[in-house]
Amino acid sequence: GIGKCVAMDLARRNARTILACRSRERGQAAVEEIRAATGNPAVVLRLLDTASLASVRAFASAVLREESRLDVLVNNAGVTGLPFAITSEGLEQTFATNYLGPFLLTNLLLG
């Protein structure tokens, strides 16, 4: 999708690229594909579920602790057509995934 294409382009430009994915298996497959296609070993996977504000907070905390700087943030997570569901934090799942999680992430990473 769009996120993978953006990550591929950034990696081709020799940027350290963090893929923030819900699925470890699918995320690691994307990391390996991007590394192989670009020759850039600085492509890494970090787990993130934007529907979970706790996951967003943990991800942002790790990035701020582990990375010396962050130049570009691409918020590309999104879902549509899911049946109505409430997250464990009491939020409507689609709203949390598409809006609240990315908004919180951006604000936490602004420093």
Automatic annotation (TrEMBL):
Any one Gene Ontology molecular-function term assigned to this protein's record: oxidoreductase activity
**Do the record's keywords include Oxidoreductase?**
yes
Listed A to Z, the keywords are: Oxidoreductase
Span-the-membrane segments of this chain are: none
Statement: the UniProt record of this protein carries the keyword Oxidoreductase: yes
- Stated family: Belongs to the short-chain dehydrogenases/reductases (SDR) family.
The cross-references to PANTHER family, in alphabetical order and at most eight, read: PHOSPHATIDYLINOSITOL-GLYCAN BIOSYNTHESIS CLASS F PROTEIN-RELATED (PTHR43157), RETINOL DEHYDROGENASE 11-LIKE (PTHR43157:SF30)
What is this protein called in UniProt? RDH11 dehydrogenase
What organism, scientifically named, is this protein from?
Daphoenositta chrysoptera (varied sittella)
What is this organism's lineage? Answer: Eukaryota, Metazoa, Chordata, Craniata, Vertebrata
